[in-house]
Amino acid sequence: MHQHIKTIEGRLDAKGLKISLVACRFNDFIVDKLVAGAVDYLIRHGMEKEDITIYRVPGAFELPLMARRLAMKKDLDGIICLGAIIRGATPHFDYVASESTKGIAQTAMDSGMPMGFGLLTTDTLEQAIERAGSKAGNKGVEAAAAVLELIRVLEQVD
Ligand code: INI
After folding, report:
1. Which residue's CA is minimally distant from atom 6 of ligand 1?
2. Closest ligand 1 atom to the C-alpha of 83?
3. Rounded to whole angstroms, how far apart are CA atoms 145 and 152?
4. What distance in Å separates the CA atoms of residue 133 and residue 149, rounded to the nearest whole number?
5. From residue 88, how far is each of 60, 115, 121, 122, 136 by CA, in Å?
6. 19-125: which CATH topology?
7. Tens place of pLDDT for every residue, the chain, 158 residues?
8. Is the dihedral of CA 139, 36, 79, 153 positive or negative?
9. Does the pTM of the predicted model rise above 0.85?
10. How many A from CA of 7 to the centre of ligand 1?
């Protein structure tokens, strides 16, 4: 049905690209799995190890400022934000989660830098574990795949 409609898609080819990850120390036993998943994905899709840099920030609240600073770097093709906010652990879950999410989205919009969103917001530790490389996949891998696809589709806009 769509055979006559021009469709532009992103190739999942990371060759020659330069990406930085911003990863939280908070809940690092979860976040480290997201980081490992994202790095593994990028390398398996052709990125050189030397073209990946990981910046560590204290927690999800600090993600947006670091992402914004990196978005000003002209030599980067994309950024991946990785963190885990678990409701049980904090009374201010909703504030941290919404400020972090809004800040990351706003940074992407203001800068035009492709941004992968790999921030887990779960009710329980078990749900976080499930999304960090077990039965519900790995949110870090998903964020890496999304930013790669976005970079490759954006570069085809003429
Ligand atoms: N930061 C997280 O990344 N995950 C959390 O679950 C979390 N909890 O539970 O509070 C969290 N809080 C810390 C916050 O992001 C800031 O680092 C802190 O408030 C200092 O500014």
Report:
1. 85
2. 3
3. 11
4. 21
5. 15, 28, 11, 9, 20
6. Rossmann fold (3.40.50)
7. 567 899 999 999 999 999 999 999 999 999 999 999 999 999 999 999 999 999 999 999 999 999 999 999 989 999 999 999 999 767 788 999 999 999 999 999 999 999 999 999 999 999 999 999 998 899 999 999 999 999 999 999 98
8. negative
9. yes
10. 41
Tokens of 27: 């809940």
Atom of ligand 1 nearest to the CA of 60: 3
Residue 104: enclosing H or E segment and its boundaries? helix 93-111
- CA dist., res. 76 & res. 6, Å (int): 29
Structure tokens at 26: 């908070």
Q: How far is the CA of 59 from the centre of ligand 1 (A)?
A: 5
For helices 28-44 and 139-154, give the axis angle rounded to 10 degrees. Answer: 40
The Cα 69–Cα 63 span in angstroms is: 10
Nearest CA to ligand 1 atom 9: 90
